[in-house]
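thread: overnight batch results

M.L. [08:02]
morning all. the overnight job finished for the chain we discussed friday. pasting input first so we're all looking at the same thing
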Amino acid sequence: LIKKEGVTYTHCVPTILGMLLLGVEMEGVDLSGLKMIIGGAALPGGLANQALKAGIKFYCGYGLSETCPLLTATDLKDDMLD
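M.L. [08:03]
and the structure it wrote out:
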């Protein structure tokens, strides 16, 4: 869908991000420029590093995911991964 439709913005939980990174690696899809909000669970540092290396700009969100509002969001900086 990213390749076919030119998706540039999405949201997901960390588990789906991991699946996305694995799938696009096998398909050779360029993720640079993709923006996403990650929520629903804590984002592991290793997964965050993989996403950054793939060129994904993401925000980690916290809020009531069942009702869709976003309470807070953070632009994850490199020093926050340590």
